[in-house]
């Protein structure tokens, strides 16, 4: 999109991209609820196979080839980054059940450190690194990437713990839980329709910061949840706020990240953009489930969920500080 959609077209393309994510999230929750209720949770995994086949064929037929210079694959960087991040997430997930000083946890963190150290050493010497280190040596480019990692960290926890609360505290079925998140998806879709125009008028930093403020406010309200809360009284408002915030955040943040990359590194920037989102979601959920696990069960269930969500508030707060301080406008902004 960054190569084939210049200027204002790029902002619209990013908006459509995020819009498709919102539609996919809404459909995924609904279809997942139906499959879990009727056939079992295993079918939620199987349904991804035909979807993946359709995507592969569609990309092959419809997406044009981008111009690129010949370069050797950075296999070492890919292996080191994957091993390091996997070990880090595993250590965080395992720490609550086995203890922070247990051999599996200590070993996982040691492997994570070794993997990240190897990644730095490999990328410094590779002509076409999978993770260009210069993206992280300047705050102007590093801050949006870090913010892109922090935003999904809070969102993943919200979706996970909202599902826990609706089913464990409110007694919802999987299908009802999927339906309960529709206000979030609807708010996300509505803001996506407006995001391109807002970015063109006010710039990515203002629109993105406003979105992060919405995410922060929604998570802060959810962190006050109590066992006596109903869906309408405790969840509906935060769900709408989180949807509005997400719709205003991802497209401007993505545009800033891609604008920082020189043409030769657009592919690497796009991969980093997606990778940071996946990493952030995994790390955020690992941290929040660790907090939740220390107080879950029985009458303490709602309190444990609230404690986990309180931890999650930190993620959009840090993202807002980074983005508002360091983000620079792109050429799509008009006053």
TrEMBL record:
UniProt-annotated location(s): Cell membrane
Transmembrane spans: 12-31, 43-63, 75-93, 105-122, 143-163, 175-194, 206-223, 235-258, 279-299, 305-327
InterPro entries found in the cross-reference section: MFS, MFS_dom, MFS_trans_sf
Keywords: Cell membrane, Membrane, Transmembrane, Transmembrane helix, Transport
Tree of life domain: Bacteria
Single GO MF descriptor: transmembrane transporter activity
Protein name in the entry: MFS transporter
Protein source organism: Nonomuraea cypriaca
